[in-house]
Amino acid sequence: MTSAMTSAMTSAMTPRTASLTPALSLAALTAAAMLAALAGTAEAYPQFQLSRDQTCTGCHVSPAGGGLLNENGLAAAETISQFGTAPEFFYGKIPRPDWLMLGGDLRGASGYVQSPEQLLASFPMQIEAYGRATFGRLSLQVDLGARESQFGNEAATHIWSREHYLTWQQKPGENTGLYVRVGRFMPVFGLRLAEHLTYIRRWGGTPLYGETYGAAVEYIDPRFEVHATGFIKDPIFDSPEHSSGGAVVGELR
């Protein structure tokens, strides 16, 4: 009986399935035609394509990325600017010598809070100024900004320098070659992606104010790069990161 029922059901369903196929095909073609007719132009910023400029130094002066931007980075910043303004420090209105680079970051948050109190809140998240002085193959970079004061040392920790280091660069003015850095900075390790919004544990998951003192030897090439860093915990302030050691990162593209 099972075989007979199966045969009957198959015979009954086959003509119906065949009759629906042309209708489904017509509906699919109609939908595809409507999508093609209504489609707009898809645009992307060429600065973020990955066929070249795949290194952090493609846009940043630091071999580890972040902070001050080089000429290509400024062009990318101008392209994605909300108002299309000049990307230079203070819109290029303040004159400066060629050996000096200035910049900064200012971020804050404002909104309505209900937790369960109901209020409007506004608070700063980051306020930092960056400076870089270059003399031939040597450069000095200093970041200066405000931070949450340290308990027991409030007077000395309202303002501080998150990063300050001296760099020797094999090819001044270029974004490849050998770099040697000494000072306070974050050691390079972990995954670093060109898509800035896709961070896999930024800085390897280290806490805020976790920069260390150290020395790094770094080589940047369009095909590969290597970063070797030896570091110690901050001997001046009580940093939340108490690690000392070394880190080596290699990337092959």
Number of strands: 9
Which structural class do the helices and strands define? alpha+beta
Query: Overall mean pLDDT score?
Result: 82
Low-pLDDT ranges: 1-18
**What is the percent of helical residues?**
10-25%
Overall, the morphology is: globular
Count of runs of 4 or more consecutive helical residues: 3
Percentage of residues in DSSP E strands? 25-35%
Order of helices and strands: HHEEEHEEEEEE
Round the Cα radius of gyration to an integer and report it: 28 Å
Q: Mind summarizing the main beta sheet?
A: 9 strands, antiparallel
Describe this structure in words.
The protein is 20% helix and 34% strand. The chain has 253 residues and is of the alpha+beta class. Strands 1, 2, 3, 4, 5, 6, 7, 8 and 9 form a nine-stranded antiparallel sheet that branches. It is globular.
Secondary-structure map:
Blueprint: H1 2-38, H2 71-80, E1 100-114, E2 118-135, E3 138-146, H3 154-157, E4 159-160, E5 164-169, E6 177-185, E7 212-220, E8 224-232, E9 245-252
Antiparallel strand pairs: 1-2, 2-3, 3-4, 3-5, 5-6, 6-7, 7-8, 8-9
Salient structural properties:
alpha+beta; globular; nine-stranded antiparallel sheet; 253 residues; disordered N terminus; single chain
The gist of it:
This protein is α+β, with helices and mostly antiparallel strands and 253 residues long.
